[in-house]
Design goal:
single chain; alpha+beta; six-stranded antiparallel beta sheet; four-stranded antiparallel beta sheet; about 25% helix; elongated; disordered N terminus
Length: about 190
Amino acid sequence: MKSDPVSSNSAEPVPRFDFSVVRRLRQREGQTLAQLSERSGVSIPVLSKLERNQTTAELETLARLARAFGLTAGDLISLAESPLAHRAKSDTYESNSFSFHRIRYANHALILAEAPAGARLSKPEVHRDELETCWALEGRLRLSIGSQVLELAPGESVQFDAVEAHSYETLADSVFLILHLRKPNRF
């Protein structure tokens, strides 16, 4: 069983849902409480208490608020459930002559890669169903993606479906970023 997270400044449990996100969304759109109340049909006192986490909301209230912001109720709940920032520690690994420093999150991974000239990686790690973006920072890269061959100079990038067979070759000492972005609801 998971315990509630505890704030680092006190012994008070952090609320499971932080509906101050409603205030941030409202302010981002330049709305007053009265304007949001009119758009959503939720009373000002309920909005005020919700924004200050002094009450919980019924599903119908969340659905009305979500529609007022152009979201689904599920999107609003996800925003209220997630912390504002997620922190992760990188891991490091090597494959052939490539060195990788990777940060992983739930829906993406960001990888800083370095390799000397002439390094080749013909079978990168197995991917889930993801999009992959490669951004050359230094050096020159040759990517083979299916039957297509592309060369990237510093500042150039390419995005492709990572389930396609692909390989990397460095034409000069290279530093590049790779982003793996999970595709939502693909299969």
